[in-house]
Design goal:
By secondary structure, the protein is mostly helical. Helix content is 73%, strand content 0%. The chain is built from 8 helices and no strands.
């Protein structure tokens, strides 16, 4: 089953919910790590390169480890998708929710570094929710591609193409921004304990994905 297209209300709604979840978690991670992201690896790559040029080795090492963990999470998500013929999205979301629970538990026991590691793995893994059989698909934890598509599809609309084909991708961007605002507010309120809200939301999305799985 191929979930990579924003071609139904179900897929658009789920993709936006996942983008909002990613924004929420990224807002938390950004504040906790002092300027590094847990879901936006282009930003981390630039930060690593600038720090490398300036000889700021602790930041270089931190950014590099975050990138590595994100890639590992993405690989694990891909293995879940490729290893199942049905209910791929629910299994991916269940694994993500469990990683966020682990992050919450690590924080509760004073193991913040392991909490962040679990969060980064969860963000990498989330991108498999809309993976196609050959690998790749729709990324939901970053929106650069979505904004590119907004611009391209607006251009297409002005040239006589579909009038509102750009709207779903703009919704993805807006959902991530809203999530980041909520994540920042929650972090200022209760620090890394705010990740429990993300875990609960991920479990809820897992249930919704299972109940609405196309047959």
């Amino acid at each position: 089953m191929r979930f990579h297209m924003l071609n139904s209300f179900r897929n658009i709604a789920l993709a936006c919910a996942l983008s909002m979840l990613a924004g929420y978690v990224d807002g938390i991670g950004y504040l906790h790590l002092g300027g590094l992201f847990v879901s936006f690896m282009s930003g981390n790559s630039t930060r690593m390169a600038v720090s490398l040029a300036g000889g700021d080795w602790p930041v270089v090492g931190q950014a590099f480890m975050v990138i590595v963990l994100f890639v590992i999470g993405a690989a694990c998500g891909s293995l879940i998708v490729l290893g199942r013929r049905s209910y791929r999205q629910p299994w991916v979301l269940l694994a993500e929710a469990m990683l966020l629970v682990i992050a919450g538990l690590c924080h509760a026991f004073g193991l913040a570094i392991y909490a962040i590691a679990a969060i980064v793995l969860a963000m990498g893994l989330e991108n498999a929710a809309f993976q196609v059989d050959g690998g790749g698909g729709l990324g939901v934890t970053y929106v650069t591609g979505a904004l590119v598509k907004v611009g391209q599809l607006i251009g297409s609309a002005l040239a006589g193409g579909a009038r509102f084909a750009w709207a779903p991708n703009l919704l993805l961007w807006a959902a991530l921004v809203l999530g980041a605002v909520l994540g920042a507010l929650a972090y200022h309120w209760i620090n890394l304990a705010s990740i429990w809200f993300a875990a609960g939301f991920a479990f809820a999305l897992c249930a919704v994905a299972a109940l609405t799985e196309p047959q």
